[in-house]
Amino acid sequence: MQIVRYRHYPQSDLSxxxxxxxxxxxxxxxxxxxxxxxxxxTDPLSRWNPAVxxxxxxxxxxxxxxLPGLKKEEIEISLHDDTLTIAGERKREESxxxxxxxxxxxxxxQRSLTLPTAVDAEKVKASYKDGLLRVELPKAExxxxxQIEVALK
Amino acid sequence: MNILSxxxxxxxxxxxxxxxxxxxxxxxxxxxxxxxxYVIRAEMPGVEKDGLEISVxxxxxxxxxxxKPIEVTGELIYREIxxxxxxxxxxxxxxxxxxxxxxxIDQGILTVALPKAETVKPxxxxxx
Lengths: 153, 128
Description:
With about 150 residues, chain A is mainly beta. Chain A has one helix at about 15-30, and strands at about 40, 50-55, 60-65, 75-80, 85-90, 100, 105-115, 125-130, 130-140. In chain A, the strands form 2 sheets. In chain A, strands 1-7-5-4 form a 4-stranded antiparallel beta sheet, with no helix packed on it. Chain A has a 4-stranded antiparallel beta sheet with strand order 2-3-9-8, with no helix packed on it. In chain A, a hairpin with a 2-residue loop joins strand 8 (about 125-130) and strand 9. Chain A is elongated. Chain A starts with 13 loop residues before the first helix and ends in a 15-residue tail after the last strand. Chain B is mainly beta. Strand 2 (about 50-55) of chain A pairs antiparallel with strand 6 (about 75-80) of chain B, so a sheet runs across the interface.
């Protein structure tokens, strides 16, 4: 048998407060899900939402994300149906330095975006250079604009 | 790599002219301190080594990072990335030896090492 300490409401400890905030955030996300195709990090301790640009031409979408100072293995890219998710974590390097000034954001991040048309999941390519992640998503054949010739009779 | 050089007077004037018109963003940066000096780590995604200009003038460190344009075919349909170049000025502590400042950039993080002058480093004095 497990004994769980009874926690009366309102809970005063920080983690409980953060949990409630996270739940609120999740609720808000659900409310706005229909209007926004972008969703940010749900980690209450992270304010880090890397900036994203999306480009489109007739054959593909190109997503560019600002992720300075990460290692390739710290970036996770996944595609679920038409939703691209980029996630990862920036860890603080262990060092003997004293922090004099801290402005950079650390911790987990996650960005998801739903693409306007179907993409060919097999042909998605990604590269990382100069702190910019670039994901190329070729459109699925059926989603490409087609020119149909109509014979005049 | 030691990229530090005192800008010539006329060059400094020219770049000041440019600065007045250009729009910059200040990069987020951490500053760490050790016994031997300070280290600045600034986030400058999209900046290559060639796009950096770092100079010291009148006790101020100027960091300028010019973004390489993102080469993408197609039309921009959603934008969050600001296209502006990065610029930041730090006032240098008198203890820093400005002739020994070094810098490098890796995956969009500019690291500037600012060593303290030998005379201000803590050291042990041997008792005779």
